[in-house]
């Protein structure tokens, strides 16, 4: 644990304990700090080259902190390590990651927690409408073509790739005129926290950005692998049970793209027999959710 880079933060002298948290998937440096009064905080540190991105992230957190959302609250933003790094100090949420405990809970509680997660995500989107100069439909269609190109280069054809691509091509029109919001950017069971009172909070806003809120549901794949009840509850909670038909059609498109992108990212990181086996396992799960894209409503919802 490197603490030298944070020693010139003016609050450093107040911290009696500094540790590295074990959950959350972000790539920047993270520390859990406790001050003299016993208050816990999350300190996130990034290279100064990410200043603009981190300032935008902090501003987004600041905006969302005004509402009834269980999330880290902003305390301070600044420079450290002789202005070589940028940091943000946020309040700490006590609890455990959903992915670590959800299977141990009864089905009703799994559904209720998923419902709460859906309401939380809806709360984020409802309070953060955004006006963007970037057209979501055009931009995402360009993204689709890039992912398809990179997928072909990876040369690891997944099962039912033709059905996936045909579905994507036939439903790209759904991307037009999508309302944009400030999204969490990485909303999945690894970043969702259950408190002792069974409340749901969300951490790690480092991928927070403007875009279509429904695209955030791509991460529901990992929830569904652990708990169908939680995944179903998340959808019901977000829409209060009144789900537009276009949602499921568009979600199937996003998850289809996600399955191809999963191949690209996995191969980019490591291309060994074990990782390739994992790729096939994950992409098969995504396809089977849709009966190999013969339907657009995931089987875990039905």
Helical amount among residues, as a percent range? 40-55%
Low-confidence stretches: none
Describe the global form. globular
Structural domain count:
2
What is the fold's blueprint, element by element?
Layout: E1 15-19, E2 29-35, E3 40-47, H1 51-64, E4 74-80, E5 85-91, E6 96-97, H2 98-101, H3 107-126, H4 136-154, H5 161-171, E7 180-183, E8 192-194, E9 200-202, E10 209-212, H6 220-226, H7 228-239, H8 245-269, H9 273-288
Antiparallel strand pairs: 1-2, 2-3, 3-5, 4-5, 6-8, 7-10, 8-9
Write up what this structure looks like.
This protein has 302 residues and is an alpha+beta fold. It folds into 2 domains: 4-91, Phosphorylase Kinase, domain 1 (2-Layer Sandwich), CATH 3.30.200; 96-288, Aminoglycoside phosphotransferase (APH), C-terminal lobe (Aminoglycoside 3'-phosphotransferase, Chain: A, domain 2), CATH 3.90.1200. Helices cover 42% and strands 17% of the residues. The chain contains 9 helices and 10 strands. The strands form 3 sheets. It has a 5-stranded antiparallel beta sheet with strand order 1-2-3-5-4, with helices on one face. Strand 8 (192-194) and strand 9 (200-202) form a beta hairpin. Helix 4 (136-154) packs across helix 8 (245-269), helix 5 (161-171) crosses helix 8 (245-269) and helix 6 packs across helix 7 (228-239). It is globular and about 60 Å long. The model has no long low-confidence stretch (mean pLDDT 93).
